[in-house]
Every structure is written in C-alpha cells, then in structure tokens.
Amino acid sequence: MSASSAFIDEKGGSASEPEYGHDPASGGIFSSDYKRHDDLKEMLDSNKDSLKLEAMKRIVAMIARGKNASDLFPAVVKNVACKNIEVKKLVYVYLVRYAEEQQDLALLSISTFQRGLKDPNQLIRASALRVLSSIRVTIIVPIMMLAIKEAASDMSPYVRKTAAHAIPKLHSLDPDQKDQLIEVIEKLLADKTTLVAGSVVMAFEEVCPDRIDLIHKNYRKLCNLLIDVEEWGQVVIINMLTRYARTQFLNPNINESLLEENSEKAFYASDDEEEEDKKDEVAPLAKRKPYVMDPDHRLLLRNTKPLLQSRNAAVVMAVAQLYFHLAPKAEVGIIAKALVRLMRSHSEVQYVVLQNVATMSIKRRGMFEPYLKSFYIRSTDPTQIKILKLEVLTNLANETNISTILREFQTYIKSMDKDFVAASIQAIGRCATNIGEVRDTCLNGLVQLLSNRDELVVAESVVVIKKLLQMQPEQHSDIIKHMAKLIDNIQVPMARASILWLIGEYCEHVPKIAPDVLRNMAKTFTNEEDIVKLQIINLAAKLYLTNSKQTKLLTQYVLNLAKYDQNYDIRDRARFIRQLIVPTDKSGALSKYAKKLFLALKPAPVLESTFKDRDHFQLGSLSHLLNAKAGGYQELPDWPESAPDPSVRNVEIPDWSKCTSRKDRKEKKAEKPFYSDSDGESGPTESADSESDSGSGSESASASDESGSGSESGEETESEEEEEDEEEEKKKKRKKHLDKTKAKKPVEESTESEQSSGSEERKRGRKAVKNQKSASESESESESSESGDESEDESEEESESDTDIRKKKTPVSKQPPKQSKKESKKETQEMSLLDLDDFEPAPASAPVTPVNFMSSSLVSDLEGLSLTDTILAPTTITPSGSIKMYELLHRITGEGLAVEYCFSRQPFSPDPNMVAVQIQFTNNTNSETKNLHIEEPRLQCGMRIREFAEIDVLSAGESVTVVMGIDFCDSTQAANFQLCTHTRKFFASIQPPVGELMTPVFLTENDFKKEQGKLMGMNEISEKLTLGEKCVNEHVIVERVTATANLSRVPCGSDKECSTPPPPPAPVYRFAGKTVSSGCLVLVTVSTKEGGRAQLTVNCEKMLIGTMLVKDIMQALSQ
Amino acid sequence: MIHSLFLINNAGDLFLEKHWKSVISRSVCDYFFEAREKAVEPDNVPPVIRTPHHYLINIYREKIFFVSVIQTEVPPLFVIEFLHRVAETFQDYFGECSETTIKDNVVIVYELLEEMLDNGFPLATESNILKELIRPPTILRSMVNTITGSSNVGETLPTGQLSTIPWRRAGVKYTNNEAYFDVVEEIDAILDKSGTTVFAEIQGVIEACVKLSGMPDLSLSFMNPRLLDDVSFHPCVRYKRWESERVISFIPPDGNFQLMSYHISAQNLVAIPVYVKQNISFFETGSSGRMDITVGPKQTMGKTVECLVVTVHMPKVVLSANLNATQGTYNYDPVTKILVWDIGKLNPQKLPNLKGSLSLQSGAPKPEENPSLNIDLKIQQLAISGLKVNRLDMYGEKYKPFKGVKYVTKAGKFQVRT
C-alpha cells in the first residue's frame, strides 16, 4: 500500500505533470515541478521517519520513470545517516543514481560509508563498500582503492565478495588503478570460498583477462569449487576456464582430426582448403607422441559435467561450449541431450540455443542426429525459431534420414507463414545440393511447387531450381522448358530474372523456345523491373551469339530500348554489350572473345549454411550470436603446438603420475618429523570460515582421485552424508594399512582416496596446520606427504637419485599455497592416529546387525579387517603368492628381459576407472637395461592407459615392479602397446580375465537383495552346475569365486550369524562388486543344494560381462 | 555486464528504467522500437539487437518487454536467464508480473532490482534471500505499514547470503510441518493427419511446496528412477547422490520452488491420451468450408481426461464459423482468427463432436493449408510416464512432517496436423 500510494500520490499530486516523451524542461511545468519538490524537501527535513520514507518513495518512483530529481540532492544526501533502514536504502539508490552529476555534494556522504566500513557487522561493511564503490566520483578513487584492499582481506567472505564486485567498478572509473587492482585480484583468486570465486573471476575477466598466469595456481581449486559456486559465477568461471584450457593443454582431437580429414577427403574430393591444413598437420603429427590427456584437462571436463544438469540455461550452455571446444570428440556427445532439453525453455533461450546448435551441428553432425525430431517445427513457433530449426534440420540431413526430413519439409511448405515457406524451399535446395541421391527428388518436388498458387512460393522455388540446375543442366532441359512456359504467369521480378538467366545460359538446350521467350520479353521490356531488364539484355546477347540468324533483329530492338532506359545501369549495360557483340569496323579485340565472355562455364553455386565456420567464436558468446566481434570479446586461442609446462598448476602436491616424485615425498618425509614444534600465525581466513578449510582440503586430494569425490563439497551442512563417506574412507585406509603390514610390500600408488574433511580430522588437523604453516617456508618440507607411511622399504639409493630430479623441478612451485599442505599434513597425521587407536582391536569376529547403510559398510569393513585369512582372503589385497602372474614378455623373446604382470586388485589411485596392472620387469642379462617405458598404445575406442613412469635404469639381475592403469571400458578386449627399452621395442598385449574388470563393493544382504531386484530379466543370468569334488565346504567355494573375480563376499544376514538359529539347509553365498570403468553392479549368488548341485546366478547390467563371468565361475567351481 | 534495464509495454511505452552503471539515455530504445515494428508479432523481435554502441538483449513476458542494455561481450543466455529470473521474482512477489502491478509496487521493484544486481553482475537471485531483504507486500502488511509507518525492508539483516546453503533462509519455524510435491508432466507431441505420432516427448517437473521448520534434510526416492535419464535440478540437490544412488537428496529452500525437471524422449514410452478425428475442407467454389472434429480417449490409463480444449488457428480468409458442438462451447474470434472449443470432461461413452460450416471471404482463393489443432487437456492423479515417488525421508530434524505427492498430466505443445 505504501508503495502504491507513493505512486498514486506522485500522479495525483501533479495532474499537470507531463507524460513520457514530453519535454520536462518546458517552462510552466518546470515551475510546478519546483513547487512539488519543495514539498518533498520539507518532508525530507522533518524528523519523522515515516515522512522521510514517504518522500524517498516518491523520489525513487520519479527516478524509476526516468524523471529528473537531481535538484533534491542536498536534501536527500542529508539522510544518508538515517536510522531507518528503508530510508537509508532508498537514499543509497538515489545517491548512486545522481552522485556522478553532483560530485561535490556527494562527497558529503563519504564519511558515513567510511564509518560503515569499520562496522562490526559484516553485512553493513559489505553494503557500505558496495555503495561507496558505486558512487562514480573520481576524487574518491584513492579512498575506494583503500577500502577495496582492506575488504579483500576481511574476515567475512561476503565482504570479500563485495570487494571483488567493487574491483571492476573502480577499474571503469579510473583505469590507471589497474596494476593495484590486479594485485587485489590475485589475492582474491587465492580465496578458498565458493562465495568469492565467481565474483573474483568476473573481476578478473573485466580487468585483466589476459593475465592467464594468475590462474595457474588456482586452476585446480576453481575446478573443484565450481559445483558449489552460485550459478552466475559458474558461467563466468567456466567461460574463463575454457580460454585457459585452450592455452594450456593439447588438442585432444589432434589425431582424430587428421583421420577425419582423410575420410572427408574421400567424400568430397574437391576440398582445396583442407589440403593445406592437412599438410601442415601431417608433419608435426609424425613426430608427435600418442596423445595423453593432461590430468588437469580431465579434471576440468569431469567437474563441469554435472553442471549440464543445472536448471540455469546459461550454465548448461557454458558447459556445452566448454565441451565443444575442449573435450575429445568421443565425449562431446553428452552435451546434446542437455541442449535439446533447453529447447523447451522460453523462446529467447531457444533462439540462442538453436543458434549454437546450428553451429555445432555443422561440425559434429552425429551429435544431434538422435535428437532430429526435437527440431521438428510446430505451427505455433515464432518465425525466427522456425527458421533456426530449419537450419538445424538441414545441417543434420544425410543419406539415411533425408527421406524423413523431406517429408517433414513437405508439410512446412504448406504453412501460412510465408517467410518460413521461403526458408523451407531454400532448405530443400540445400539438402539437394548436399546429398546427391535426392537431388532429382527435390528438383521434381520443387518443379511441382512451380504450379503453386502463391507467388512467393513459386518465386522462391524458381530461384532454388536455378541454382540446382546449374549443377547438371544437361539432364534437365524439360524443366527449363517448363520454366520458360511459366514466365508469363510469374510476376515476382527475382523469379522472372532467374528464369531468363536460365534460358539464356542454357539456350542450347532449348533452341526453339529461347528466341520465342525473347520475343515476348521484348514486347514487355519497358514495363519490367530493372533486374528483369538486365536479364533480358543478357538473354538477348547470349542468343545473338549462339543463334544470330533468328535473333539479330530482336537483339537490336532490345538494345535500342535499353539505350533510352531511365536507369543508367541498364543504359550502360546495353552500350557495353552492343560494343562487345555487334561486329563493327572498329570493334576492338574484345569482341573476338565475346562468346567466351558470355558463355563461359559458370561454377555451380555452393549453398551453404550461414553458420559455417562460426565456431571460431567461442560458442554461447554474444559475438558468436552476432557473428561479429563484440566489444571486450576475448578470442578463443588456438591449441598450443606443444603443451606448456603443466607443473605451473602444481599447488603443492607433485604430480602423482610420476613415480619419481612420489618416492621423493617418501624420502622427505623420513627426513622431517611430522610435528615441527614451531607456531604459526593463523590468518583471519582460517578462523572466519572453518568450512572452507575442509572444502579445500578435500579438493586437492580429489584432484588426484575421483573415487573420493563424494565428499568433494566438504561443507558442514552436508555433514551427515559426508561423515558416512569419511567413515568409509577411514575404513579403507585402515584396511589398506593392514594389508601393507601384512604383505610387507610397498603398495604402489595407494595415495588414493585419502580424503579428509571430517570434522574430527579437522580438529585434529588444525593443530597440525598451524605447525605446518611456519614450516612451509622450507622447501623440502613442502612436499612432505601423504604417502609417507609407505616408504619403509624403498631402496635408499633410488630415492637419492630422484631427489636430484626433484630439485630441478621444485623451483617452479616456489610458493605453494598453504591449503594443500594442510591437507597432506592432516592425512599423515590421521594415518598415524589410526594406527594407534583403531587398529589393535581387530580380530573381533561377529559382525553387528546392520542398521543402516553406514553401519553396514562398517560391518563389511570390520569383516575385511578381521576375517582376512578365512573367508575374504582373496577379496582383499592378496599376498603376491596367490595372485596369478601372466607373462607379458618371455625371457627369450625379450632378449633377457622378462616381464610378467598380474592384476594386483588394488584400486588404481590416479584414476579409479582403471584397473591396476602390476608389472614386474626382470633383467636376466648381464648388462643394464635403460629407459623402460611404454609407447604407442593401440586401444579399442574408449580404452585408456596410464603408463607407468619411465624406468631409467634396470641393472643386471635386478627386477623392479611398477603399476600401470588401464581402463578396459568393461570389456575383455586386449590392450596392445609397445614396451620399449633403450635399444628395442617389444609388442605386448594385456588381456584381462573378466573377473579382473571389477572391484569389490560392500553390501549388506538387504542391500544386495534390493539391488538384485533391480537387475532382473535380461540382466540376470542363471545356470545350474555340479560342484567339483573339492568344493565341499564354504571356504573353498568362497575362495574359488573370489579368486575368479574380484568380488567381495556379502556377509550372511543376521539370522545366521548373530542370533544362533539352526544353520539353513541350503547355504547361499553372495558376492558383490562393480565394474571398474562404469561402476555397474555385479552381483553373484551361489546357492548350493544337496548332492553337490548348485545354482549360480549373476546379475549385472552389462549382459556380456555377466555371461562371461558365469562361464568363468562355473569353470572354477566345477573343477 | 548488464548496464541498464528498461521495461516497455506492448503499446511501446517505456514505464520503468533502472541503471546499474552510469546512466544511459532512454533514446537507446529507439533501436528496439525499430526492431519491434519490423517484427509484426512481439514473438518475433530478435532477442539480441545490435546498436552502434550497445547491444540490447530483451525478453518478452506477460506482455512486457524487458530490454537490457549491454556494452561488452557477455553470454546472451546469461542475460536472458537473468531477465527471466527478474520476471519470476516479480511474479513471486506480486502474484503476477504485469505493468499495473509493477507500477503499483514501483519502490519494491526498484529495491529488488538494486539487490539483484551489483554493478550489473547478479548478486542475490534466490527468492529466499530476497524475501529476507525485502518483504513481499501483503494486504495486511501494507495496512500495518500505512498506520505505523514501518517498512517493507527487513529489519534483520539476511544471513542466507552468508551461509553455505544460500537458497534457504535461517530460522524457519512452522507449527504445521508439511511438504508437498506435485509431479506435473506435460506431453509435447506432433500427430500427423492420420493420427500417427510424428514426435512425442514428456516434459516433467516436480514442484515442491516445503514448509518445514529448521534445517531439514530430505531425500526423495522413486519407484522407477530409471525412467529419468535427462534431468535438471534446483541447486539444492546433491548431484553426486543422484548419480550414485538415484535418490534426490536436498536441503530445501523454504516455500515453493521447482525441485527438478526431467525430459523423457523415447517415443515408445510416451502414451498419447487422446485421439482426434478431424476433417477440415475448404471448397474451391462458393467460399465456404466444412469442419468436423471428434475427440476420443486413447491411452488414458483408466483416468478421466479433463479440461479438454481444442484451439484452431484458422487461415486469414475464414470469416465466421457456424458450428454445432455436442459437448462444450465453441467460440470463434474473427479478429485473431482463433477458434476455441472448450469441451471440458471427456466422456468415453459419448464422444464430443464439433461439426459445421465455415464461411470464407468471397473471392479469395481457398487456403492451401488446413489449420493445425492445438489440444489442451489435463489428467489428474496420473503421471503419464509412469513415474512414481517411492518415499520421502527427512533427516536432521526431530518432528514428523506431513507429506503429500500429487500427480498431474497436462498437454504441453500438443499439436495435430491436418
């Protein structure tokens, strides 16, 4: 009411007030304005808040309607310190609007804001900074600068966010401050809260988008925070990261693009442009090593993918363009579905999305093909949407779907929307040019359209037919004849002109009709449109040259008519042609060539999409939409030829993919104790937002590991769920530790899943963090590390030689941000704590009754701990003896180098979707072998290999074990590669048994049954079998199954073990696992019956895996 | 980013302007008016208009053009999405987003716009936060305000902006704790002349109305989550949880919000609830035509089809319609050339039929294309895709909430070509 009354008052109070568009400065009105403002001034000067509020509301209503209220400035600015919060806010609104015009008076308000900046309440500090920075008064630039700097190190992340917002404001006010502002940006970029991330990247984009170097250190953090940033920030960050990735990583499609070009060559033999590209491409490719994606590149792709599910169309589009520009070709497809989903949104959104889809569909047609029907046009769509959809449909047309598309086009041609019909006809024309097979069909269809009643349709068809005929005129003289007949009926100039041109061009095919047409046209020449006249002259000239006997006089007549035409173009043309074709005594050299000039073979027009090559603009950008560079557009850089140093992004944890650095870490750890006793000062950040610590703590770990990403958004609010994860995580670690102690063997790459964000750890960790801080200066400490406790029996010499390498490397990451240090510290500490209090009471045997998911996993984990040597022996990490070793390279073929491999059944830490393959090299020669590494993996599509780091030296008689990861994509296809030494290359191939493609998961019996219920029907494979002689007891059966497949046993329900009922007559054994690559559940049930008979059931979504597994387990059990 | 915003009504009056950076003269809108004139229909105004110094990005909603002025490169969807968010906020605050309500609440509108953008970059767009900052007007509150002089601006400073769950306001308290979920599915389909489905898909949303005290942590599970392969979520939903367990786990915002939307496109999954038998023909001579439409139930899963409406956009030459409806009423507007036949409930025993003649403008050639029919319908208590909510669990709070789920199927863009 109050608001509305303000508006009504406004109106009622001044009936004489002008409406919009009137000139407010005209005399009489001005005076009445003046009076009314007096009244407002009075109200503003009163002591009553309600009166002030009333006045301010009226003033704001004036501003909203675009009226000038600047003369009230002095009266309003007085109220800037008003107690009433609404009055204050409205005063701010006024101030920001008019301060620029009244700079001197605006200064009066500054002290209020300066006071506000010191307020204990963070929201008041933030709002003071916000208004202060919004006042565009150059005099206060230094004050603003100071305020921003101060706010950038404020305790409250909200204030820091406001500071980030203020940066571009100041920059636009005074660009000279750029350098100082960049410093602030740099500082804020290091901020770890999601609140700040979006805003500071926005500031970065506005102030210094070219300072890509500022991003290096924050890259991984930004990737990991991304999902929790608010939606608007996400858009800005994703767009920025797209550019960043283009400068830092290699083109993932480098190999494929070559392939594609080759194949395209086969299709369209006349592509000249690509020729050059190809040549450029081939040379470097020969030298290029097989492409391996930078893990940071992968991280970006992985972390943006979930955002395709955002409700915000801008976010979805941002991710889509990121994938389009950055992802390997095989992965780009996932964006299609999301983009098609956006098409349901408002028509403006549709418009933008369709523009982008149109561009994408040219490059990657296959991507949208499955969604063809989503682009079908409804009669209620706005015309601009219809035309864009048509564009997409045309782009998607190919040999297989063209018939459906043409059928669809047929219905469009009948539409009432004539612009759309014209566009449809053009689309048909384009389909016809692109797809040879349907050219005749299209042409016939278009010819039928010539008899349409609507002139526009006919005209458009003529134009398109003309273009099509140009491609193969010989076969279509009847169509040309048909069109010649039409000329009397068609009135649209463009169409008439087209027909005339056609007849002229192909007059040899229609020798009888052409002169007749010219005769008719000569009659109506004076009444024709200019464009038609020009074509008549053309026709005449061509006929004169080919058939001068019949048309000489006609041509003369036409040229004479043209000579006196009103249009100078036509007069010109007539004169020009007369000189060329009519032989006179003085005719120049040119007339000899007249025939060649006029009847030269014209190249067929290429009908191509207007969206071709638009993708050099970053998709989703304004520039792309306009197909022109918009102000402030940042070019999307080309991929670099060779990758820039990836270590610039190393925050502190060295790249885990390198074996060497890992060892270093161990060594360093041995040198330094965990707890250095020095005290560190904890910055304001730490105390202000404890949750950010945990967030960033987990993030650096998850950079190296996907499996733990469940707790990636480590925030307190999600504590419940989180804690579960942590519990599990802890269990895993504990288990691992157990294995280690048991196996007494260094386990490669077990840094995996060392997530820590639990509140418990946090508390414990905090102390360590502090300690760590001061220690961080010392370089060596900086890499002390998470895998510390594995180092026990690593050979000393080896690590020494590695240290040298590391020393060369480290200067790059001279000032590693603190966060990851904390994290690693926390981890190590946590490990040791676990050693102390959790490990000892292991051998408790009876599992607890499962209550919920959390405790159920506890049960199975406990089982894993205690019963290792009985039931679950093979499921957990087995001692090397029981693992089957496969030969990769025989001693003889390998000329003394023997290579064996086994599936260690360890999770492969750098990429949880990979199966870890442990490879043992033994050098049986008397000389040392050098540079052992892998080259040229030849893989089935989708499969990936993560090579082990090169082994520098393997001295005689020595053997060494490394671990590599292979993503088999849940298939038993072999991974082929070459094993190289410094002298030779050996072909090697690893084919996994189906049982190794999975990894155990822990389920309770109930969970198991539930999951099994979901995997019925096709997904269930059941087989009867007779157990082998030795399979007499539970132990043997379990062992056989788990030896065959990497599964874990599902603990038998409470009924059996807890509450002592009589043992069930037919014991059932259940095993659960999931496939490594795609995480599909694999459930195995063996139910035994009397007489050694049994039934084996496997439930798995992947039927192939299920079938193979059934076979393998049957074999194992029936032996 | 967003420099200024102008609101322009259908008649071309500019009735509100707001600038976030320095003031841009409203004359920039002339370029917009030019484009508007060229477009004929408001739908056809290009969303992005280029002017010599600025770019105008506009949306058209509720008969209002929201025209924003941009000076530098910015993703157009970013602006479009934001403008729609502004329109939705107005709707949320004032019940409808129209010129009158905006003019009546101009101060609140201004305050909202001030909070939503800072220097052209979105600051607070979550309805929960905004409502804490600026209370929506209610009749009672405006009465109290006029008497006591108190204000609409929240006295307490909002904390939502600071929390890690910015979409929920703190300290929510209800005496009746309740959570309602509406599963609303819309069928988008194109049927051809013979009644076969050219294209069909289901567009579903789950609208939630959650009024729960404290910080409840909800998880919603489905009987058949496999149906959902293309979904988008409110930011509150934990995506990882969905990926791994197909459970929607979230801390809800307070009040009404859209929890998720989904898209089912596999054609064989989409049941078409009604069939339409139609025969529209225009005669070559005599400037008239005939029309005969019958609607009947097809796959309705035993439920009744309600609110059945058939809309026909007639060709321009159709002057009037003389029809006879066995059920419901029809209305032909000779100005917009739209025929609306409001059938109501579909009775499977006695199929509704609309039959009669159309008179055309004399002398004009008969229209080439038959008009397509747009169908509107509603089926209560049915999600046509078969999606079923399994259960809703609440963690984190002690009380027992009242829970409810409702299913509705509607026709979306349901078109029959003739």
Automatic annotation (TrEMBL), chain A:
Biased composition (Low complexity): 693-712
InterPro entries per record: AP3_beta, AP3B1/2_C, AP3B_C, AP_beta, ARM-like, ARM-type_fold, Clathrin/coatomer_adapt-like_N, Clathrin_app_Ig-like_sf
Occurrences of domain AP-3 complex subunit beta C-terminal (ranges): 826-973
Keyword Lipid biosynthesis set for record: no
Keywords: Cytoplasmic vesicle, Golgi apparatus, Membrane, Phosphoprotein, Protein transport, Transport
Sequence ranges of Basic and acidic residues compositional bias: 661-674, 820-829
Signal peptide per UniProt: none
Protein's GO biological process: intracellular protein transport; vesicle-mediated transport
Compartments, as annotated in UniProt: Cytoplasmic vesicle, Clathrin-coated vesicle membrane; Golgi apparatus
Start and end residues of each stretch annotated as Disordered: 1-28, 636-830
One Gene Ontology CC term in the entry: Golgi apparatus
Membrane topology recorded in Swiss-Prot or TrEMBL: Peripheral membrane protein
Pfam family, any one: Adaptin_N
Biased composition (Basic residues): 731-744
Described purpose of this protein according to its UniProt entry: Subunit of non-clathrin- and clathrin-associated adaptor protein complex 3 (AP-3) that plays a role in protein sorting in the late-Golgi/trans-Golgi network (TGN) and/or endosomes. The AP complexes mediate both the recruitment of clathrin to membranes and the recognition of sorting signals within the cytosolic tails of transmembrane cargo molecules. AP-3 appears to be involved in the sorting of a subset of transmembrane proteins targeted to lysosomes and lysosome-related organelles.
Protein family: Belongs to the adaptor complexes large subunit family.
Protein name: AP-3 complex subunit beta
UniProtKB/TrEMBL annotation, chain B:
Function field: Part of the AP-3 complex, an adaptor-related complex which is not clathrin-associated. The complex is associated with the Golgi region as well as more peripheral structures. It facilitates the budding of vesicles from the Golgi membrane and may be directly involved in trafficking to lysosomes.
Family: Belongs to the adaptor complexes medium subunit family.
Residue ranges annotated for the MHD domain, each copy included: 176-417
Protein name: AP-3 complex subunit mu-1
Family matches, as InterPro entries: Adaptor_comp_med_subunit, AP2_Mu_C_sf, AP_mu_sigma_su, Clathrin_mu, Clathrin_mu_CS, Longin-like_dom_sf, MHD
Gene from which this protein is expressed: LOC113056974
Localization (cell): Golgi apparatus; Cytoplasmic vesicle membrane
Ranges annotated as spanning the membrane: none
GO term, biological process aspect, one: intracellular protein transport
GO cellular component, as recorded: clathrin adaptor complex; cytoplasmic vesicle membrane; Golgi apparatus
PROSITE patterns per UniProt: CLAT_ADAPTOR_M_1, CLAT_ADAPTOR_M_2, MHD
Superkingdom classification of source: Eukaryota
Membrane as UniProt keyword: yes
Main location: Golgi
Keywords: Cytoplasmic vesicle, Golgi apparatus, Membrane, Protein transport, Transport
Pfam families: Adap_comp_sub, Clat_adaptor_s
